[in-house]
Write a structure and sequence with these properties.
The complex is a heterodimer of chains A (123) and B (282). With 123 residues, chain A is of the alpha/beta class. Chain A is 41% helix and 18% strand. Chain A has a single domain (7-110), classed as STAS domain (Transcription Regulator spoIIAA, 2-Layer Sandwich). In chain A, α2 (58-73) links the parallel β3 and β4. Chain B is an alpha/beta fold. In chain B, α2 (18-32) crosses α3 (38-57), α3 (38-57) runs antiparallel to α4 (69-85) and α5 (89-103) runs antiparallel to α6 (112-154). Chain B is rod-shaped and about 100 Å long. Classes of the chains: A alpha/beta (123), B alpha/beta (282).
């Protein structure tokens, strides 16, 4: 039995905290659970905290993009928070720029980002 | 036979015993022109002399003999010191070769045996001289590498301009190694200071080519992945023309001409308003 990652709810926001390095099956389970929970709790925002994640591969990178795309279809915004420098460099070197995913430095800033109305880029 | 020649060599070095070492020290001291303390030189060379005599007694045939390990260790230390003190390679090698010159007088009314022994010792000393130069070069290379690393560290400071706004002023030519350092430092600074705005200022970068642009893009994307926004500032007219001529596209990345503009934008993005007071002379 592979581990499942708990999904917590704060108001209209779901918080997923990844505490260990991910296996492929865990990632697939998370994707499934999250889609179910967004519908069940009619969530409007999803925060994925990966501050404890030290190693990523292209599969995990793609998972983040897929989860964001799934939530968007279900009308919820996704924010990935707490990415480590080494992880960010790895993803860039892998050629994954996670185009449609919002990011924030930490959980607090992520929540603040979700509470703001969709702001158009300031130039 | 071998045993005999070894005894001959030792004999050669032991002729006049301490006297020989003393004149060796004098010879080297003259060649170094007093830039090194005589006491230190005396200690170094006497140790070397003793070790060499011991090695030859045990039957060492060349520099790489096992019996020579003590001599090699002493010589390594000597060459390293010379390299650090800024002596030239020939001055370093002279410390060894001077011994040959000091021994020359024994040739004058020496037997055939003595001359053969002298030649053999000469070969060994040549080997030792080359060894000294090799160690010298190695030490120099190490020094250069360390300095290059220190320079790398010096040239990439990350400064905090405001609460939540950091900047990296880049000066000098950018290459892969430097950009890697810049990237790591910038990203780490974002985490450490909790900044959401970063400015990369390239006023001091003389030229931008496709590779440099590629590196900048990578850094900016990595910062974005961590949840920070990056602005590139300090683009000179020439660099702007080069960027367009090369067909480099900074998709979705804000670029500003000056650091002031970039700071203004960063402050606006982090919700800071700046108000100019009326009546204040500027």
């Amino acid at each position: 039995m592979t581990e499942r990652i708990p999904i917590l709810r704060i108001g209209k926001t779901l918080v997923v905290s990844v505490q260990f390095d991910l296996e492929d099956q865990t990632v697939l389970n998370l994707q499934e659970d999250l889609a179910e929970q967004i519908v069940a709790k009619s969530a409007q925002g999803v925060i994925i905290d990966i501050s404890a994640l030290e190693i990523v591969d292209s599969f995990v990178g793609r998972m983040l993009a897929t989860v964001a795309a799934i939530s968007r279809v279900l009308d919820a915004r996704t924010v990935v928070v707490g990415m480590r420098p080494a992880v960010a460099i790895t993803l860039v070197e892998l050629g994954l720029s996670l185009g449609g995913v919002s990011t924030a430095l930490d959980l607090e800033k992520g929540l603040a980002k979700l509470s703001r109305p969709t702001s158009s880029a300031l130039r | 036979m071998k045993r005999d020649s070894a005894v001959d060599l030792v004999g050669l070095l032991s002729v006049e015993g301490e006297e020989l070492a003393a004149s060796w020290v004098r010879e080297v001291a003259t060649s170094l022109g007093g830039r090194i303390g005589v006491a230190e030189l005396d200690r170094e060379l006497r140790e070397l002399h003793g070790a060499l005599r011991e090695a030859l007694r045990e039957g060492a045939v060349d520099v790489h003999s096992e019996q020579m390990s003590e001599v090699r260790a002493l010589l390594t230390e000597l060459s390293r010191n010379r390299a650090r003190q800024g002596f030239s390679p020939s001055e370093t090698a002279m410390s060894v070769f001077a011994l040959k010159r000091v021994l020359e007088p024994v040739l004058q009314n020496g037997s055939a045996e003595t001359i053969r022994a002298y030649l053999q010792l000469g070969r060994i000393l040549d080997g030792l001289g080359l060894f000294a130069i090799e160690t010298y070069t190695q030490t120099r290379d190490e020094l250069i590498t360390t300095q290059a690393e220190q320079l790398l560290e010096l040239s990439t400071p990350v400064v905090r301009l405001w609460d939540g706004v950091i900047a990296v002023p880049l000066v000098g030519t950018l290459d892969s190694a430097r950009t890697q350092v810049v990237m790591e430092k910038l990203l780490q600074a974002l985490v450490d200071t909790g900044s959401e705005q970063a400015i990369i200022d390239i006023t001091g970068v003389p030229a931008v080519d496709t590779q440099v642009a590629q590196h900048l893009l990578k850094t900016i994307v990595a910062a974005r992945l961590m949840g920070a926004e990056c602005t590139v500032s300090g683009i000179s007219p020439q660099i702007a023309q080069t960027i367009v001529a090369l067909g480099i596209e900074f998709d979705g990345i804000v670029t500003k001409a000056s650091l002031a503009d970039a700071l203004k934008l960063a402050l606006r993005r982090s919700g800071v308003d700046m108000v100019a007071h009326e009546g204040v002379q500027r």
